[in-house]
């Protein structure tokens, strides 16, 4: 009897998986006891960590430290060994914050603007400006001689600029500034004044909150220059100031000061020792971040606490659950768990740990990172690091894909892993500093959603069943790596596009 094309294809896939299982990476691998990951544990921990009690776990605050202490205590109760500095669960690092000083002054014509109420200084700088204002309609074609030595003013959105982020005002406004600030700055302007249009006005309350906090940095950051411009103020005024900046012969007089502070931030680090006397000296690193955006009084929004249930309490509690599972049945290799601090400030905790690991860096065989794993369609997910140039270990990818086929069978969205994706999602989570160190790394996610970075990202919105499946998938992947005869190999010639 002749087989149909679909039957032949199914047989082909089966043979491929059997051949895959015979690969040395999979040899001697045990099937993960995923039932050790319990939905009730995840739900209980999620509702505790993403509670108002921790006030949104903002990096560099006592709230982040309190949440980190809670995680460390839960790890201790689960039987995980401390793996931080000096025999503790903690690895502290200094977070440097720079913000615009409240003593800064801004005046256009005869009008003085109140900082954070009717004007935003987009990033910290030191500058004194006294120059004429030139309003332009087309930032792309304006001649350098028209604006050099002057203050250029333009409205959101400049002509000719379109982008998929336009559907979310606060993300789009940042894109507009990023797109045009450097272009205009390169033409010798003294300052840039963006004026809200209707869309940008929606983003104003959030922009004022974020810019008021300033910018953050650590020693050795991957993002060494996070400012759009240096010494050229980027100023954002509200829509009602449009007629003022359009008037001829206006001048901007501004004196911008900045001030800096140093705060402690922390990674929580724990481990479960492997069962093999030799392979236990190698580690499978499970990665997530525990911080979020803290307390922010946002205009028109009653809830001021951004609890970040999906981002990233979901992964924080997933790591606890995976740790308990490894404690019940250790792998041959050791399992290392790092809850990174200050991810929202610029991947600072993971950058610090990748540079200052508490175990030998060469002993890290793989990094399995998660960020936001409890939302969107119940049958879909994303795995980043599987498409070149982000693919850095086919061995590791094959293990993860096989465990998905065995278990949750998620439909994988690969668009967000592409180098051409407008969100650059691959570069926005804690696997990235490890990949930069040539450590095989994957990024598990269920991707952004309308509640992303809003007060509505609460535990009640999380799909606990999906969270459980994602946690089991991460665990099964790590368990397979921990028990494989050989560690996953790095792709020859691996190099990220940035």
From TrEMBL:
Gene3D superfamilies linked to this entry: 3.50.30.30, Zn peptidases
InterPro entries cross-referenced by the UniProt entry: M28_fam, Peptidase_M28
Superkingdom field: Bacteria
Keywords noted in UniProt: Signal
Pfam families: Peptidase_M28 (PF04389)
Record's keyword annotation contains Zinc: no
Signal peptide: 1-27
GO molecular function per UniProt: metalloexopeptidase activity
Family matches, as SUPFAM superfamilies: Zn-dependent exopeptidases (SSF53187)
One biological process term in Gene Ontology: proteolysis
Protein name per Swiss-Prot or TrEMBL: M28 family peptidase
Lineage: Bacteria, Pseudomonadati, Bacteroidota, Chitinophagia, Chitinophagales
